[in-house]
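In response to a reviewer's request, we include the raw inputs and outputs for one of the modeled complexes. The two entities were modeled together in a single run.
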Amino acid sequence: MYFEAIAKVVAERTGCDVSTVKPESTFTELGIDSLDTVELLMNLEDELGIEIELDQSVATVGELDKFIQSKQG
Amino acid sequence: MLNGKTAVVTGGSRGIGAAIALEMARLGANVALVYAGNQTAAEAVRGQCAAYGVQARTYRCDVSSFQQTKDTVAAIKADFGSVHILVNNAGITRDGLLAMMKEEAYDAVLDTNLKGAFNMIRHCTGLFLRAKEGCIINISSVSGLVGNPGQCNYAASKAGLIGLTKSVAKELAPKGIRCNAIAPGFIQTDMTGSQADNPLLAQIPLGAMGRPEDVAQAAAYLACAGYVTGEVLRVDGGLAM
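The model returned the following structure tokens for the whole complex.
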């Protein structure tokens, strides 16, 4: 589960309260465009100390969480 | 002018790439030289860059390989922290008439010249996005603008670079990342060899071949030109006018 880490980076980036970030929140709703998610992911890499290669677009926080889990096996 | 920036130059061991690397170093940028095979030449250019008081390192990499470019960009990030300027200069020729061209001659040229640029941009873009700045310079060719008999593969790759340049420029402009191309004409390098007998020389309005330094000057301009993106800058003595 990477949801908490993602929510933290999203909150840091957008200035929103971390509790308002839900798994079903879309990045568009959060004011994050698809290129921003690439940057977000790089911040996550630092936060989690793992390497993530984003090779598809993800719409929601929950999807990104699932994507990272799939990459981490 | 480029103090504190890191410039990655592919095909940096000789010719136009070496001249661009030296110019970036002269302007204060740290330089990551990416070369395909000639380590001695790459080391020599690295030494010349370092003489300007900047950090310079060499990286052996086949830019046509997605994985190798990924690993190389990761190594550059580890060594320099980030990348601000990417010059996609690595290029090869396998000239021949289309009617007799081997499939591998076509593929090899497209893989290095066009896909190589894609690979490098692909792996550097995350760093650009994070730095909230970036400047990509793709070295195209007048062959890509006007075509050239015997170079259908090379011209296709160089024309492809222009489409790549403009798409990337549009895609990344909202993030403050610029992408431009340079279209050199006849430049004196190992790759072009002696063109003394080439009848095309007579068609160059400025009447002579260009020097790698002429292209390097254009690259330096694009590296600093904050309001210029999606441009194809000819450095050809007027050849493709």
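As requested, we also summarize the result in words. Helices of chain A lie at 3-14, 34-48, 61-72. The mean pLDDT of chain A is 88.
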